[in-house]
Design goal:
Length: 458
């Protein structure tokens, strides 16, 4: 079933000034030439003299259009004589800007969406085509429900309706069926949730919750997660919320919090986080160890690793050591660790809501390359574990090649390792599959998509 198109016009105000659309167009042009969406948007916003409201609209337009580009192109294909990829590239973006507002933004009246887009066309060298822009957008606005045709092929149809490449739809379909895939695609098209992890070394969850309530910040508890609060409503920047500067909490999605519980770190142990940056799980592990023992935070990318240090200081932890290195090759750690976490680099198919352009950047080939890296890191990291010790392998993807297949292959080649299921009475039990791993499906559990499994060395 197709996603609902915009039906209500909640406000009849003319909407924010054209500068928000022009700024969005500037960023979109850079993305079209290969820039990352967040980098292009930051660059465009950096020197812009626009109101916070316009800033918000530009951000919504850029991320929304990048996400929905396949759907928007399919509408152009249907409504124009020339297909989307036959249009001049910049005009195609201008059409995306108009169609996106009409289809997905309830707070912008249709007339404002059309008129500002026509103006944008004129201001950007397409005066001669402004009548075409006007006609196409008005045609859409008259019959939004028939502007997007259904495709005969079910994979292609979901791909067009929800704006995903066919290969990702196929990966989801094989695991979740048609209805589940549509729910998942919908979830990953929504703005991401914001979860906090309470630093229980500094404050209890009850006290922090009360502090937020007093400041009229709405939060929600999450089952199975004793340290998690989901931000529902707040005003202003996140780092200005109560308790941030004092290190009473950190931003971390709830499914990422599950990973450290599965690792089950104990005070006094030696633990390595093999792919640690920017460090959310390293910090959680140190907290669970009551800051006693050693956590090695290793990552290949020094700039990403630097971010851990700021949080180590803010959260007041002392047992973490950082090291820039390639975890495929650190022989000096062999048999040194009680536990190891491999939170592997992955295709991120469980967190596409957090990275608007990721669905277009990943390909089946990039996934194959990632599986080679994941296999090599896991194999090396396993050698660091002492006999009787454990390793947790985790990813934020929902691709079986990067998850189940990696583990099956590892177990086939390493007969001294077995899956170590968490206790039945642990908070993780409800999420366990029969195979012994945890697979979080965002549309079912309302948190980031994740895969995690604990293995034990004989
Ligand atoms: C999924 S992220 C880790 C997120 C982190 N665990 C957290 O909770 O904040 C994967 C990380 O693996 C790192 N990485 C990629 N290849 C690596 C390698 N060969 N050795 C060590 N780290 C690597 C990347 O730089 C990236 O920071």
């Amino acid at each position: 079933m197709a996603e609902q198109t915009k039906t209500s016009k909640k406000s009849q105000s003319p909407g924010p000034a054209t500068t928000a659309r022009q700024l969005a167009l500037t960023a979109l042009k850079q993305i079209q030439r290969g820039a990352f969406a967040d980098v292009a948007l930051d660059r465009a916003l950096k020197h812009a003299n626009i109101s916070p409201l316009d800033r918000k609209l530009s951000t919504e337009l850029v991320y929304g259009i990048i996400r929905r580009q396949r759907t928007l192109d399919a509408i152009i294909d249907n409504l124009a004589t020339k297909s989307a990829n036959q249009q001049p590239p910049e005009l195609r973006l201008i059409l995306h800007l108009g169609l996106y507002q009409l289809r997905y933004l309830d707070h912008i009246p249709g007339s404002a969406a059309v008129n500002t887009t026509v103006d944008l066309a004129k201001q950007n060298g397409f005066s001669g085509l402004s009548g075409f822009v006007n006609g196409l957008l008005r045609k859409y606005d008259r019959h939004p429900d028939t502007a997007l045709l259904a495709a005969d092929d079910p994979v292609r149809n979901i791909g067009i309706q929800h704006s995903y490449p066919d290969w990702i739809v196929q990966v989801y379909l094989e695991q979740f069926g048609t209805e589940g895939t549509e729910q998942l695609c919908n979830w990953l098209n929504q703005p991401p949730t914001i979860d906090l992890r309470v630093n229980t070394r500094k404050i209890t969850i009850d006290t922090l919750e009360a502090k937020f309530q007093a400041a009229e910040i709405e939060v929600q508890r999450l089952t199975q997660l004793p340290q998690a609060l989901r931000l529902i409503k707040h005003a202003g920047a996140i780092h200005q919320l109560p308790g941030f500067t004092d290190g009473e909490w950190i931003i971390q999605d709830s499914s990422a919090q599950l990973v450290s519980y599965l690792l089950d770190p104990q005070p006094g142990e030696t633990i390595v986080d093999a792919c640690a940056a920017p460090g959310g799980k390293t910090l959680h592990i140190a907290e669970l160890m009551q800051d006693q023992g050693t956590v090695w935070a290793i990552d290949k990318t020094a700039s990403r690793l630097k971010k851990i240090q700021q949080n180590i200081d803010r959260l007041g932890l002392t047992c973490i050591q950082t090291k820039t290195a390639d975890s495929r090759d650190i022989p000096e750690l062999i048999n040194q660790c009680d536990r190891v976490l491999v939170d592997a680099p992955c295709s991120g198919l469980g967190t596409l809501n957090r990275h608007a352009d990721a669905r277009w950047r990943q390909t089946p080939d990039s996934v194959t390359k990632l599986t080679e890296l994941q296999t090599a890191i896991l194999q090396q990291a396993a050698s660091w574990v002492k006999p009787g010790g454990t390793i947790v392998y985790a990813t934020c993807t929902l691709h079986p090649q990067e998850n189940e297949a990696i583990i099956q292959n590892f177990l086939d080649q390493n007969s001294n390792w077995v899956i170590d299921r968490p206790e039945n009475n642990s908070g993780l039990a409800p999420l366990l599959t029969e195979s012994g791993w945890i697979k979080v499906a965002p549309h079912q559990q309302q948190m980031d998509g994740f895969f995690m499994v604990r293995l034990k060395k004989a």
